[in-house]
Amino acid sequence: MSENKRIFHISNRVVIPDGNGSAGGLDETISAPPSGYEVVRFGWSGKVVPDNEFDKNGAVHTVTQDGVVYITLDLKKSEFEGFYNGFSNGVLWPLFHFRPDLVAFNKQELNTYMQVNEKFAEIAAKYIEPNDVVLVHDYHLIPCGQNLRERGVSQPMGFFLHIPLPDDDLLGSAPSDILDYDQRRKIKGLFEYFSAYNMVGVQTPQDIANLHSLVAGGPTPALPASMTAAPILSTTDTFNRSSTHFGVFPAMGQTLRHARTAEKAAFSQEVEDVISKIGHEPDIVALDRLDYSKGLVPKLRGYLIYLIEQQQGLSTRNNLPHLFQVAAAGREGVKAYQNERTQIEAIADTICQIYGDDVLHLDTNTIKRDVMLGIFRRSNVGLITPLRDGMNVTAFEYLGAQDPKNPGVLVLSKYAGAATVLSDSAVLVDPRDPYDIASGILKAKTMPLDARQERHGNAMQFFGRHTNQTWLQSIVDQTVKAALNCH
Length: 487
Description:
Elements (H helix, E strand, L loop, with lengths): L4 E9 L11 H5 L7 E13 L10 E6 L2 E9 H20 L10 H18 L7 E6 L6 H6 L7 E4 L7 H6 L7 H10 L8 E4 L2 H12 L20 E2 L6 E4 L6 H11 L3 H10 L5 E6 L6 H17 L10 E6 L6 H21 L4 E4 L5 H10 L2 E4 L8 H9 L7 E5 L13 E3 L4 H12 L3 H17 L2 H18 L2
Parallel strand pairs: 1-2, 1-5, 2-4, 5-6, 6-7, 7-9, 10-11, 10-13, 11-12, 13-14, 14-15
Antiparallel strand pairs: 3-4, 8-9
């Protein structure tokens, strides 16, 4: 048992670093612990075992790497289907991303979701030590805090939601043939589990307002719409007559570190190999997961509109732009993702049929982070237009990767959480409106050098003040403070 202070992170998926730079947004965000804290990562290993082969005695794995303790557990095939593909990504993900029309509610999958949360808590409780601060992450594990409390875990405990939070009106707007009254009640009941935590953190002021509409029942506190001046808010409140506090903590990345990586990688052989593959020097680049929340369909339509408008003013196609869109495939067991891929590929085919393969390259493979950072640095425009997003650290990475002497311009969805902290650093667009996206691309492509440098300078000053370490320090401090106040 350690006598040192530890942050005990509990998340759905735990990836043990292998040096290929492909960690996800959550891993990026929590990768730099505050000074004086050791780190434990607890969660699913990524391994799915057939039910008839599952051995619970061999399903938990512990490894220490670079000073971090990783505790991972395997899931049965039925658990993975019900908990992950089913309720988490068939109900909560579309609902939290304002797509109630895509919700596929199944009572058995809700039961499996609750059972897997119990399983996480039962195993994690055995490893949590007296000096730990417990942080539970994201929509997969909302009930986990209550499950831990029931097993005697009394340590300071926080919850952070990395994705957007819907409001009560959206939940009520789901058609009755998709969600009936009882199903809505069951989903809304999940938010009552927030009362087990000392601190609940969200990404934006709008998320706080939506949290109030769902569980607080009182007036929404006055919070700024933009947080470029003071993005890490310590403003907290209580809700639902419990001692739980909540606050706005915009998640950050390792942007300054990525800036150094991008400079080194820009002309590396790996980057040159990708450029040779796509047959074009990076012009407009975009990096997303292949997901309906990322707005890829209206983005490609917006790019098509931009091409049409540009061709009208050109005497030759040789001067047309080029879009390199990386859309890494995932969650392919979920039907909505299969449908999204079909739509994206159809629009991409249409663009290439009209203008030729030289204007667009769509890649559904995962590309290493340092390679993408090098490509970002050599590009003119970054196009990141999710329909909804919790924060989107890729937006930070794009800006951080730029050459200060000749920076590219970020075109960013106004509905990404990052827009609340980058309003003076990016061109903000409505991701649902292809014409607005086309206008944003034009503005970015024609922006004068001094304006580009000013926007990039604003971003780098912001990143210098706010890092993933200061973000995590703020959440830990507020969680501990809230826990002390409730005693």
